[in-house]
């Protein structure tokens, strides 16, 4: 079974697969192509990613890849907890510049579907947080782009003091939304 919740931005969805618990632990179909298609999620995933962030208060993002390497992402957490954020970069969208922020954890078992046309990032809320995500296109360093996670125009309420956040060097230098070239119609 797959539970689907809408978010404030219709194409961004929260999907929660069933978890069957017993004396040993649990079993869960974390992705089932047929079931996801029945739920309206018809995507051709080609790569699975896994990251570990050792410290709480690590922010990764906001990232996206441009065409022809744009990616849909299906994000989940197997250890720890994150605030996961998707920012709408589609110029013709009524929600351009707006975002969805959802807590994903190993406990709540939620997955966030971040479609093509969105920048994605997250902040870890616990140490040793592991994030897994499926993507529909291959990594291409040449098409990898970023948006400043702390751009005030985005109004993202990161759950940490952003001046203390653990960041990659790359993530300190991304342009703000107003300076970002149009990447998605
Ligand atoms: C994303 C990615 C990175 N890499 C390499 C490049 C680099 O040497 C190292 C670390 O890359 P990054 O610093 O970009 O990793 P990270 O900051 O974790 O990047 C990820 O952030 C989240 C929020 C996303 O949405 C992802 O799409 C991806 O952009 O891994 C790959 O080989 N394949 C990949 O798919």
UniProtKB/TrEMBL annotation:
Its EC number is 5.1.3.13. Keywords: Isomerase. GO terms for molecular function: dTDP-4-dehydrorhamnose 3,5-epimerase activity. GO terms for biological process: dTDP-rhamnose biosynthetic process; polysaccharide biosynthetic process. It catalyses: dTDP-4-dehydro-6-deoxy-alpha-D-glucose = dTDP-4-dehydro-beta-L-rhamnose. The record marks 139 as: Participates in a stacking interaction with the thymidine ring of dTDP-4-oxo-6-deoxyglucose. Pathway: Carbohydrate biosynthesis; dTDP-L-rhamnose biosynthesis. It is an enzyme of class 5 (isomerase). GO terms for cellular component: cytosol. The active site is at 63 (proton acceptor), 133 (proton donor). The keyword Cytoplasm does not apply. Belongs to the dTDP-4-dehydrorhamnose 3,5-epimerase family. Catalyzes the epimerization of the C3' and C5'positions of dTDP-6-deoxy-D-xylo-4-hexulose, forming dTDP-6-deoxy-L-lyxo-4-hexulose. Homodimer. This is dTDP-4-dehydrorhamnose 3,5-epimerase. It comes from Microvirga guangxiensis. The lineage of its organism: Bacteria, Pseudomonadati, Pseudomonadota, Alphaproteobacteria, Hyphomicrobiales.
């Amino acid at each position: 079974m797959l539970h689907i919740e809408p978010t404030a931005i219709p194409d961004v969805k929260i999907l929660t697969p069933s978890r069957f618990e017993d004396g040993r632990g649990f079993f869960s179909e974390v992705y089932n192509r047929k079931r996801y298609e029945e739920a309206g999620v018809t995507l051709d995933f080609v790569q699975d990613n896994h990251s570990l962030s050792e410290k709480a208060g690590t922010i990764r993002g906001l990232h996206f890849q441009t065409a022809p390497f744009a990616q849909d992402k299906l994000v989940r957490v197997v250890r720890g907890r994150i605030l996961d954020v998707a920012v709408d970069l589609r110029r013709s969208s009524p929600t351009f510049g707006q975002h969805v922020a959802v807590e994903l954890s190993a406990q709540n078992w939620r997955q966030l579907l971040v479609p093509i046309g969105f920048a994605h990032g997250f902040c870890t809320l616990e140490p040793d947080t592991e994030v897994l995500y499926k993507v529909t296109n291959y990594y291409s360093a040449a098409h990898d782009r970023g948006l400043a996670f702390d751009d005030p125009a985005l109004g993202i309420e990161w759950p940490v003091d952003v001046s203390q956040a653990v960041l990659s060097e790359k993530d300190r230098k991304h342009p703000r939304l107003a300076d970002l070239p149009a990447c998605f119609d």
